[in-house]
Amino acid sequence: MTYHPLTMLRIARFAFAAWLLVEILSWAGILPLTLEFTWLGLVLTASLAWLALEVISWRLRKVGAGNLWGWTFLAALISQCTDALGDILRLYGTQAWYDQAAHFVGGAVVALVFYNIFHNLQGHGSMRLPPSWMSAFSIFSAMAIGSLYELEEYGEDVLFHSNRLGSAFDTGNDMFFNTIGAVVLVVCLVYFRRKRV
Q1: Quick one: which of 27, 90, 126, 164 has the most CB atoms within 10 Å?
Q2: What is the pTM (predicted TM-score) of this model?
Q3: Per-residue pLDDT averaged across 58-65, rounded?
Q4: Structural domain of residue 42, as residue ranges?
C-alpha cells in the first residue's frame, strides 16, 4: 500500500490542530480535564513545537528541499501527547519511569526532526555532510533542545510556583534520557537507511 507524502502531512496537521484545541479548551475550563502542572505550559510547548515544524518545512520548501516528513509531524504530536497524558493522569508525580520514557521519546523526536532536515538538504544538494556527521549533529541538536526544555520548566516554576523542574538529579536524569532517545533513534535511522541501499 502506498500513500502520498502530502496526505500524511495533512493528517498530521489535522491531528496536531485537534490536540491543541483539546488543550486550549481544557485550559479555558470548557473540557473537564485537570493537570498536575499547568495548561499554559502544555499549550505553549505544543504551539511552539507545531510552529517550529511549520517554519522548518517552509524554509526547506523555499530552498527546494521539500517538506518535513508527515511521520516527523506525527512523531512530534506523539511526544506532545505523551507529555500531556503524563500530566493529566498524574503519572509524573507517581511513576518515575514515565518521566524517563517521556524524555526518551522527546529526545528521539527532536533528533528525528534534525535528521529529517539534514536528509532533505543532503538530497537537494544544499548541504554536504558525511552520514556520521549528520547523525552526530542530529544527536547534539536534540541535546541542545533538551537543555532549552529544562530552562522552560525552570521559567514555569519561577513564574507559576509549580514544581516542573524537580530536583537537580531529575534535571540530569531528564537530559540523560533525552540523549539516549536521540542516540537510539539515530542508530535506528542509520540502520534502516543502510538496509534500503
Answers
A1: 164
A2: 0.84
A3: 92
A4: 5-196
